[in-house]
Amino acid sequence: MSTPPPMRLLGCDHKDLLGPVPPRAPVGRPALRLQQNPGAPSPGKKSSKDRTITINCVTFPHPDTMAEQQLLKPTEWSYCDYFWADKKDPQGNGSVAGFELLLQKQLKGKQMQKEMSEFIRERIKIEEDYAKNLSKLSHNSLAAQEEGSLGEAWTQVKKSLADEADVHLKFSAKLQSEVEKPLMNFRENFKKDLKKCDHHIADLRKQLASRYSSVEKARKALTDRQKDLEVKTQQLEIKLSNKTEEDIKKARRKSTQAGDDLTRCVDLYNQAQSKWFEEMVTATLELERLEVERVEMIRQHLCQYTQLRHETDMFNQSTVQPVDQLLRKVDPAKDREQWVKEHRTGAIRPVDLEI
Questions:
Q1: Are 86 and 96 in contact (CB under 8 A)?
Q2: What are phi and psi of 244, to 5 degrees?
Q3: What are the two backbone dihedrals, phi and then psi, of residue 56, each rounded to the nearest 5 degrees?
Q4: Distances 40 to 45, 50, 98, 275 between C-alpha atoms, Å
């Protein structure tokens, strides 16, 4: 597996999530930048000094100003490092969250596992039908009257079919118990677990969107209050209004309150984003673990399948070995001698009749 390069991640500090931050990659390995998704909706307002950019209510460091960030798992290509941004829906229906792509992958894997078990089931049916037909053929009476050493070999040919039928029946039974059933029964509640995980992350994302909406409303309210304060101050200075200093103080208090509200909304948004970030890491690592477990489980049972096939071939070979041995002993001359001894009626030959 190739080692991924360091890249830039979400613009928040979560050093304690996966332990100490590992050392940076050696010089010469370029850092990847989080690029704005070209298919995503236009970003919202940027923070002061344009240090951040918000896409679909998720705030990232601005590509032009952010400092390099270390991968959470720099030694491998982990789900937790590469699915933070949303992706444009191929159907044109907005965007799809990165986590949703991971869920779809897991569901596809579950479906593939089901289809593999169905494939093995078909293999079992073929083996059972084959064994049934072999057994039926072994009891066929064709050429039953053959005699001598060739007759013995022919009898063994038919007996070997019965033995081979038994081998294939045992093979199909082991396939069912040791391969097909484990593939079908593995993590029966997997889809339910995925749905629970999906709903949890989706709820956190909805909360994040709601908090971001509150930030935008508070930002607009602050802008309106500041404009109102500025207008009243200018009117008082040029004496175009009868507004008193008390009116200015009142407008200033409202502006300050609006600023406090914006600060509170931003804090709540950041808390929601931090929670979403942590749960995303936890959930993606769990999906990663489940995927490894699924693939390894299938690999082990397919290895069991090949081992059973090898054993079946060996058993089949043993059923044919007696046939090979008897065929090597077929001797037409000896057969003729034996038959003559058993069925002879006299050794005196006739001669010509003389006049």
A1: yes
A2: -100, 170
A3: 50, 40
A4: 15, 19, 12, 23
Nearest to 284 by CA among 222, 194, 218: 194
Tell me which amino acid residue 174 is: K
Where in the chain does DSSP place strands (E)?
52-55, 58-61, 87-88, 95-96
Neighbouring residues of 232: CB distance < 8 A, sequence distance ≥ 6: 241, 243, 247, 248, 251
How far is residue 294 from each of residues 100, 104, 264, 298, 307, measured CA to CA in Å?
19, 15, 45, 6, 20
How confident is the model at residue 337, as a pLDDT? Answer: 85
Alpha-carbon dihedral of residues 24, 25, 29, 34, nearest 10 degrees? -50
Q: How much is the average pLDDT of 159-185?
A: 93
| pLDDT score, position 4 | 55
- Secondary structure of residue 68 in the 3-state scheme: coil
- pLDDT confidence band for 355 (50 / 70 / 90): low
Q: What is the pLDDT of residues 110-135, one digit of tens each?
A: 899 999 999 999 999 999 999 999 99
CB 108 within 8 A of CB 115: no
Query: What length is written for the chain?
Result: 355
Question: Contact at 8 Å (CB) between 95 and 42?
Answer: no
Contacts 24+ apart (CB under 8 A), 71-76: 71/4, 71/6, 71/7, 71/9, 72/9, 72/17, 72/18, 72/281, 73/18, 74/3, 74/4, 74/6, 74/22, 74/25, 75/3, 75/22, 76/1, 76/3, 76/4
**CA 97 to CA 235: how far, in whole Å?**
50
pLDDT of residue 336: 82
Angle made by CA atoms 321, 125, 167, in degrees to the nearest 5: 20
Segment 43-61 shows an average pLDDT of 72
